[in-house]
């Protein structure tokens, strides 16, 4: 076992002494003053005097003076004790004040001593706090390492003083707390403890050394390097002194000058480790070196923290040590003045490597390319330079471009003027971008057909006459994040594009986790400007060279290029393209306009006369369907064999116009338009159940609104009738329109084979109606819909024939000889009785009619028997006579009484409340709706209310 010692490792004590000054001295206080003697002689003098006075005077009273002696002696003793106590209090106060002041001075000298040690031997946190300390020259050739913070011997000395407080102060002055514990780095360090904790300590120690020593003096190696070690500028820097890092239980990386190893508990310590740091807690450890041991608090770093510091050091190294490289060159200096078709396809200059022009051949080096680089590294400028160079070298019969900008929509604005550019797609128009990119699959099929028609196998065949198409994407990660389904499209183009003359150039800030392996494998041409993650650099060019590129403005435009046949990437500076270069090229370029790989967007207003009519009898033209994946726009129709169509759309979306469009193409005898008015809608749906119209077209507008106006029992029955109609569809077609996909509409929707989704108020409504969330748009024009998943613009009808309105029910007056009327008592009943009496009718209550011998014996005047439900129930004889042989009228407000008095369980025809409606049953027939005349009803009568 190593012996514990008060001497804590090697430090530079001379520097500490220089700030400590002379020893601090405590005063020696006399806390025990000498006791005063009793004044015996002075006490006996009064006694002797009193005896002499008594002998001289003979008075006995003179002897009282003898008592003064003891009194004077006692008083003197008391006064001496008081003075001694005061002296002790003064001495104690003096010593306490001296100890407090000396303690403050000890703390100040400790602080100065600690700061000087931290300045001479900073750990990671102090390096980060003081940027000027990084890579500052040290006098010692061998780097020292701070293994933690603990207690060390101080050079501060305290002398003098007595007592426990002075002893404690002297002991505290001899030890410096929270001081850096330093070991010689050349001896090697082994960190013993759990893997994850020990590895964090190893990272902190290595980063500390790399912050202290520049890569020109220290080279870092490892048998199993981690990402953060690879990111260090010290990694394999070739310096004379070598630091070997061993984070896990792996073999050591050969000979080294400094070894920092992670050792699991119980495992042997690697040779060459003179210092052993044994973790005893989460941040506590015991440091053993040269038979000395001390407790310390260790410093730890997570992998992400180490990676960030390594990246900053790499940037620092590039700023101080990187070769400035070739000067900036203009693309105009590398290009010919006019387009020329050269025998080598798509080979162009894009920059200069300091010795010669850098050429890129997208066909020979590709056929597809990846361009990586963080924001501000010059990625967009590289793409613009490459495109401009291709346009300068080749005319439109050789190459055309589809540009996709998903970083704000302005990167390729200057290139729109070039005749080679077939189109520019931006993230500002998400719907148009998705549509154009989906057309790429159709472009693949078109090129396959075009090659097959001329008997060619690839575009290099002279019989192939169409140009190559280069698809350039700036911010590919943003594109596939917004439209993940397009990733498969790019994978398909990458796999089949070589022979078809379709080339991908994908620009992205990050590659790892963004570009799938299946796509990356087909992009052998790799270019990378500066990236912030070594994994991205290695994914693109196979090394971390792109990660090591400087991030300064002067280094903007430097790129690492790796072709399919290159073992290592090469460095070049991308040429700069100016607006004048592009403008001059736009004027001098020649050739026909290139074929656009997608069709124009659907018009927002479409006349039916512009559409091709269907040759099939009975088909109805709906509009123009857009099929970008087929590069086709064709007429959408409602076929004769289609059983129906559901149209969902918000207010103003054009759903009524769709029904009007269908109506104007249907002959009147074969058209059934269900009215929006609820009474008419109820009657029409009921009639469709009883008498299905063969060969007709049934149109129902605002179904959800109609059902919402009906009472619950009528709404359920109406939905049931409509379901019956739809199940019987086949001989006729049903088109239903609604604003919202409610519960009742959803039941009907399941029975309609086709569905059109117009503009809706929210994405939630659109998805609830069966739409794909990715296809939702808040800016759809009227008539724009997704018909069975296909984007369609419905044609504008020539006119709006309007919704057929239901006819008013016939007016009823008591003209029959005998009429029974069911009406709740009230003002309306009294007005009716008065009006009928004035009209010449005889009006009796049910009780009065019961007193008649025979109700048929009423004379020539018409008889009206009026009563409420209870009165009629109590008079079954009269009720039976009237109901079976005469007219029986029930006010619409007495629906419950109708069922009780007539025994009819089916719902009667629906009556609008407050509209003077009633049901008429003639001699036992089914009830039919009638309207009371205003004269009969009287002013303000509300029979059904």
UniProtKB/TrEMBL annotation:
SUPFAM superfamilies cross-referenced by the UniProt entry: P-loop containing nucleoside triphosphate hydrolases (SSF52540)
Region of interest: Disordered: 588-607
Any one Gene Ontology molecular-function term assigned to this protein's record: ATP binding
Sites where the protein binds ATP: 373-380
Domain FtsK: 354-538
Residues spanning the membrane: 38-56
Keywords annotated in UniProt: ATP-binding, Membrane, Nucleotide-binding, Transmembrane, Transmembrane helix
Gene3D superfamilies with a match to the protein in the record: P-loop containing nucleotide triphosphate hydrolases
Protein name, entry field: S-DNA-T family DNA segregation ATPase FtsK/SpoIIIE
Record organism: Microbacterium endophyticum
């Amino acid at each position: 076992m190593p012996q514990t010692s008060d001497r804590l490792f090697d430090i530079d004590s001379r520097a500490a002494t220089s700030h400590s000054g002379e020893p601090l001295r405590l005063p020696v206080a006399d806390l025990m003053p000498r006791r005063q003697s009793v004044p015996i002689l002075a006490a006996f003098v009064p006694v002797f005097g009193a005896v002499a006075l008594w002998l001289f005077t003979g008075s006995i009273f003179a002897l009282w003076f003898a008592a003064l002696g003891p009194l004077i002696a006692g008083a003197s003793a008391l006064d001496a004790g008081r003075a001694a106590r005061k002296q002790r209090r003064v001495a104690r106060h003096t010593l306490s004040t001296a100890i407090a002041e000396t303690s403050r001075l000890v703390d100040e000298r400790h602080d100065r001593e600690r700061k000087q040690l931290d300045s001479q031997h900073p750990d990671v946190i102090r390096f980060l706090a003081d940027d000027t300390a990084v890579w500052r020259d040290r006098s010692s050739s061998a780097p020292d390492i701070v293994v933690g913070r603990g207690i060390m011997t101080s050079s501060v000395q305290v002398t003098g003083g007595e007592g426990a407080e002075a002893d404690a102060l002297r002991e505290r002055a001899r030890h410096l707390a929270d001081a850096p514990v330093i070991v010689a780095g050349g001896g090697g360090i082994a960190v013993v403890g759990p893997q994850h904790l020990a590895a964090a300590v190893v990272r902190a120690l290595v980063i500390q050394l790399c912050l202290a020593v520049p890569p020109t003096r220290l080279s870092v190696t490892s048998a199993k390097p981690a990402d953060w070690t690879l990111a260090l500028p010290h990694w394999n820097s070739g310096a004379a002194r070598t630091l070997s890092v061993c984070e896990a239980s792996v073999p050591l990386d050969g000979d080294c000058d400094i070894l920092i190893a992670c050792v699991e508990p119980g495992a042997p310590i690697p040779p060459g480790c003179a210092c052993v740091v044994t973790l005893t807690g989460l941040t506590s450890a015991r440091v053993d070196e040269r038979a000395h041991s001390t407790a310390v608090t260790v410093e730890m770093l997570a992998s992400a923290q180490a990676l960030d510091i390594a990246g900053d050091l790499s940037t620092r190294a590039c700023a101080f040590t990187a070769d400035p490289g070739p000067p900036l060159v203009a693309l105009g200096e590398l290009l010919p003045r006019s387009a020329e078709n050269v025998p080598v396809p798509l080979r162009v200059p894009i920059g200069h490597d300091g010795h010669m022009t850098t050429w890129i051949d997208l066909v020979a080096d590709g056929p597809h390319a990846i361009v990586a680089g963080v924001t501000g590294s010059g990625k967009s400028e590289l793409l613009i330079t490459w495109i401009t160079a291709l346009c300068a070298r080749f005319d439109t019969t050789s190459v055309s471009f589809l540009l996709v900008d998903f970083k704000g929509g302005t990167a390729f604005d200057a290139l729109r003027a070039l005749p080679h550019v077939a189109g520019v797609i931006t993230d500002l128009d998400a719907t148009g971008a998705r549509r154009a990119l989906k057309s790429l699959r159709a472009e693949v099929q078109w090129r396959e057909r075009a090659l097959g028609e001329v008997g060619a196998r690839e575009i290099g065949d002279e019989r192939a006459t169409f140009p190559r198409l280069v698809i350039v994407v700036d911010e590919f990660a943003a594109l596939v994040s917004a439209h993940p389904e397009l990733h498969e499209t790019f994978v398909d183009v990458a796999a089949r594009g070589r022979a078809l003359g379709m080339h991908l150039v994908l620009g992205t800030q990050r590659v790892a986790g963004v570009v799938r392996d299946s796509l990356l494998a087909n992009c052998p041409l790799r270019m990378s400007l500066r990236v912030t993650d070594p994994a991205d650099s290695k994914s693109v060019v196979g090394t971390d060279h792109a990660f090591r590129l400087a991030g300064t403005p002067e280094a903007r435009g430097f790129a690492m290029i790796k072709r399919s046949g290159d073992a290592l990437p090469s460095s070049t500076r991308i040429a700069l393209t100016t607006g004048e270069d592009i403008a001059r090229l736009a004027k001098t370029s020649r050739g026909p306009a290139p074929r656009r790989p997608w069709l124009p967007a659907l018009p927002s207003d479409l006349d039916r006369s512009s559409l091709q009519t269907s040759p099939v009898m009975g088909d109805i033209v709906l509009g123009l369907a857009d099929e970008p994946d087929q590069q086709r726009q064709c007429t959408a129709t409602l076929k004769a064999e289609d059983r129906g169509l559901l149209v969902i759309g918000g207010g103003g979306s054009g759903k009524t116009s769709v029904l009007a469009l269908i109506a104007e193409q249907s002959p009147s005898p074969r058209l059934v338009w269900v009215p929006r008015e609820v009474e008419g809608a109820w009657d029409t749906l009921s009639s469709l159940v009883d008498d299905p119209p063969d060969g007709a077209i049934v149109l129902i507008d605002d179904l959800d609104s109609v059902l919402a106006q009906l009472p619950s029992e009528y709404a359920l029955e109406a939905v049931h009738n409509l379901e019956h109609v739809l199940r019987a569809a086949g001989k006729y077609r049903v088109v239903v329109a609604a604003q919202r996909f409610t519960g009742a509409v959803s039941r009907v929707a399941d029975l309609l084979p086709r569905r059109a989704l117009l503009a809706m108020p929210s994405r939630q409504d659109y998805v609830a109606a069966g739409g794909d969330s990715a296809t939702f748009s808040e800016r759809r024009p009227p008539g724009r819909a997704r018909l069975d998943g296909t984007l369609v613009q419905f044609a504008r009808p020539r006119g709006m024939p309007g919704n057929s309105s239901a006819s008013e029910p016939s007016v009823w007056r008591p003209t029959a000889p005998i009429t029974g009327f069911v009406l709740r008592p009230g003002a309306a009943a009294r007005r009716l009785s008065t009006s009928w009496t004035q009209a010449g009718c005889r009006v009796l209550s049910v009780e009065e009619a019961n007193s008649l011998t025979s109700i048929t014996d009423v004379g020539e005047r018409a008889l009206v028997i009026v009563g409420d439900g209870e009165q009629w129930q109590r008079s079954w004889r009269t009720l039976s006579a009237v109901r079976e042989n005469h007219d029986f009228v029930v006010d619409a407000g007495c629906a419950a009484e109708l069922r009780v008095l007539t025994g009819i369980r089916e719902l009667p025809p629906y009556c609008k409340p407050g509209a003077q409606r009633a049901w008429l049953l003639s001699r036992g027939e089914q009830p039919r709706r009638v309207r009371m005349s205003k004269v009969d009803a009287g002013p303000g009568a509300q029979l059904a209310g």
